Amino acid sequence: MNNGYLNYKIMKQYNILGGVDAISVTEEHPQFKEKIINPDRYYGSDLNKLVAKDCRKDMMVMNIDLIINDYNQNKLKIVESKHSREELGVGQHLLLKKLSQMGIDTYVVYGDEPYEMSKVYSYKADREILMNKQELINFLNNTK
């Protein structure tokens, strides 16, 4: 994934906590003036909803889909999953980029069940790789 594609995918996202929903304007996020906080949207957990509605607005709260802790290989991998036409949220991008800069392997997998073909973006390598289902399974198993 080149930076232009990644930036396009990110900048179209309007929700603060991931997911693509209809926007109901209530207030702007203090760090991202073009982003709107939508209190009526889906939240990954009740705790996320509490933080988004009642806690400080100068921080971002979001779900990350998958954390793989491979004990045998002493390897930590964080993966955000998106449908092939779904967009990555600004907050998710910033978090994954920051975690990558801290030395944690972070990825975004764009694909749809049954995952016959997927695109996997690596923050560390700053590139996207097309993978078939078996290659994706090998990647997730750390056997690639």
**Tally of domains:** 2
Query: Care to count the β-strands?
Result: 7
- The number of helices is 4
Strand order of the largest sheet: 3-4-5-6-7
Mean pLDDT: 77
Q: What overall form do the CA principal axes indicate? A: globular
What class, by secondary structure content?
Answer: alpha+beta
Q: Which series of helices and strands comes N to C?
A: HEEHEEHEEEH
Describe the structure.
This protein has 144 residues and is an alpha+beta fold. The chain folds into 2 domains: 3-54, no CATH class; 66-140, no CATH class. The protein has helices at residues 3-11, 46-54, 90-101, 133-140; strands at residues 27-28, 36-37, 66-70, 75-82, 105-111, 117-122, 127-132. The strands form 2 sheets. The protein has a 5-stranded mixed sheet, with helices on both faces. The protein has a two-stranded antiparallel ribbon with strand order 1-2. Helix 3 links the parallel strand 4 and strand 5. The radius of gyration is 16 Å and the shape is globular. Mean pLDDT is 77; it is low at 1-32.
Task: Present the secondary structure layout.
Layout: H1 3-11, E1 27-28, E2 36-37, H2 46-54, E3 66-70, E4 75-82, H3 90-101, E5 105-111, E6 117-122, E7 127-132, H4 133-140
In short:
With 144 residues, the protein is α+β, with helices and mostly antiparallel strands.
